[in-house]
Structure formats: structure tokens, C-alpha cells
């Protein structure tokens, strides 16, 4: 994921972004892209499959009145990449804690305080989870099940699972189940794979009541598959999606508005802005809520 260089991008550049002429029916998504390498296989990663080769050190992060633990893992140790945000088709930035994850937790907490959201007894899916902090927040707020998905199985083994286990052990008072000898007895599952294929192994059942995702809409070619996956996994009629993202990702072309244009074109989901973060030091960040019409 590219770093934001400025919030003052030329207006004409942004206008062209949303003014591309359609050639295949997707309109704004149609322009040449380099083909990606084959995606890694879809896998369910078990809680016991923690990788000990890469050291995961824990440090606290305060958000929404909670102190959560976030792991720190070397990208070089896991992927032999030096401080890389992403390598398309190989590594999608899952070892970095993106600020959208914290924005999402703060927005979820506000939604709960205002009576617009409850996780109690809900089935939750976090897409592109990385550290998994939004999913962990849902678990601590009495979700019945939380499933975590990331592009890379290595991220799940080296970071997500250690993060989940550490936070559950640190906050046993919030658990509806128990943590015994490093094993979480409540339903927590981990899935890796590309959004175009991972639905084949997800335990969708009757669908997920809440789908969470942060910083997942930066890649233009991935947006159609992400949206199709959401539609396959969202429970009907009351399922809801919470998405945290930057308004525009400089250098890669994606962003919240690019994704929402796809949603609006399809016409199945209604979207509403939940929160906006404009601190003057980076691109505008947003949290959106989507649900079936």
C-alpha cells in the first residue's frame, strides 16, 4: 500500500479518475493493469499453527477505552522483504498496523454507545485482517464467533493468531468462553486466500452478521472480487459491513469513493458515512456502513 504524499492532489487528476469511459461494463475500473502472479492457495490456518521462526513482540495500543495488544513482526524475517508495504500478489501489507484499523474500532465503539450496533451473539468476519484488532474488539464485545481472513497464511501464523491469543489472555473478563493453555474455546477461525476464491473455504453458514474491513480498498483490480465476496458472505436481511479506508490512495488509485462507486452501480447495498478523520497530516480517512436495501 503506497504512502500518502499529500492531501492536495491536483483536482484535474481526481476528476479523470472518476471520468474514465467504460469499456467492459465496470466503467471506472477499466484501464490497463499489470497481471498479478498466481494467488496463494486458500487455506484454513489452525490456532495451533503459530510460526515460531519469526519473533512476534507485543506492545500496547489504546483505542476506544480499551488497551489492546498489537504484535510487531519483521517483514524481512517472514517474507524476505525489507520494510515493504506490499508486493502485489505476494504480500499485501498484513504485517503493518494501518491507521484505518484504529479508526474502525473507534467508530464501532461509537456505534455501540449510540445503540446502533451490538456484537452480542453475532457472527463476525474480518477481511484483510492483518493484526486483527477490529475482530478482536468484536470478540471482546461478546460476538459469538469471529473469523479472520488475510491474503497471506504467513500473516495469520506469525501475527494474527499470536495477537488474538495474547489479547484474549489479557482480557479474560470480556470473554464469553475461556482461554486455557493458549487455546481459545469460543469459535475463532482463520482463513487465508485471495478474495476471488476464499469464499470456497469460509464457513458462511447463514452468513455473517457483521463484516469488518480496514484499508482493503487500495487496489483497483481487487475491488470487484472484494465486493462479490461481501455479497456472498453477508447475512440477509440484517447483515452490515463496516469499512475503514482512506478517501483516496495516492499512487495506487483505489480508495473508499472508488469502492463505493462500485457499490452504487450495483444497487444492492445502501451506504452511509459513519466517521471522517481529517487531521491535516495525511489523506482524509473515512468509516462507512453498508447494509442491504
From TrEMBL:
Keyword Cytoplasm assigned: yes
One Pfam assignment: Methyltransf_16
GO molecular function, one term: protein-L-histidine N-tele-methyltransferase activity
The keyword Phosphoprotein is assigned to this record: no
GO CC field: cytoplasm; nucleus
Enzyme Commission code(s) on record: 2.1.1.85
Protein's cellular compartments: Cytoplasm; Nucleus
Domain of life: Eukaryota
InterPro entries: Methyltransf_16, SAM-dependent_MTases_sf
Alphabetically ordered keywords of this record: Cytoplasm, Methyltransferase, Nucleus, S-adenosyl-L-methionine, Transferase
GO terms classed as biological process: methylation
Similarity-based family: Belongs to the methyltransferase superfamily. METTL18 family.
Protein name: protein-histidine N-methyltransferase
